Amino acid sequence: MTVPAMQPSEPEIPDVSAETAIQEILFTEGIPGFSSHRNFLLEPVGGALFWLRSAVPGGPAFLVVEPSAFLPDYRIEPEEWMLASLGVSTTDDLVVLAVVTLPGEASDPPTMNLQGPILINPERHLGRQVILPDSALGTRTPIPLSQ
Questions:
Q1: How far is CA 125 from CA 71, 85, 88, in A?
Q2: What is the pLDDT of residues 78-121, one digit of tens each?
Q3: What is the pLDDT of residue 6?
Q4: Residue 110 structural domain
């Protein structure tokens, strides 16, 4: 009597939508302070949070957030050359992110850098951190967590 060989079941392939997929982003000029790192991976964490990690092992990694998730009125007006460097003419075609700083004390809120937002063109996989010197919002804007 022969026993039929057990066939392993087909592994379930998770549905990877645009919201959960890791995207490679090229920063043609690097990120200020990290100019030698130009290739980054944008990895969703959940909700409005993402990791922006260097594609080079051991490179820098930044926790970033979509500021509009917490401040719906947050708008930026980058200069035309900044938009052109990303291949767009309006911010409507961009994902706007801000670098998060976690607090030193548990009672303090995390903050986000709204004066130096990161602009991503998801269609062309291009990114750029811009500095908005005339911004009324600063580099350590508290993230309102109780909404």
A1: 25, 12, 12
A2: 999 999 999 999 999 999 999 999 998 988 999 999 999 999 99
A3: 39
A4: 23-140
Q: Helix, strand, coil % (nearest 5) of the chain?
A: 10, 30, 60
Number of domains observed in the structure of the chain: 1
CATH of the domain at 35: 2.30.290.10
Q: With respect to residue 11, please indicate whether it lies within any of the assigned structural domains.
A: no
pTM for this entry? 0.82
Pick the residue with more confidence: 42 or 134? Answer: 42
Tell me if 16 is assigned to some domain. Answer: no
81 secondary structure, DSSP code: H
Amino acid at 147: Q
Nearest CA-CA partner of 113 in 60, 76, 85 = 76
Show Cβ contacts of residue 7 under 8 Å, excluding neighbours closer than 6 positions.
none
Does residue 15 belong to any structural domain of this protein?
Answer: no
Where residue 17 falls among pLDDT bands split at 50, 70, 90?
A: very low
CA atoms of 116 and 133, how far apart (whole Å): 9
Closest CA to 128 of 55, 72, 79: 79
Nearest to 126, CA basis, from 93, 100, 98, 99: 93
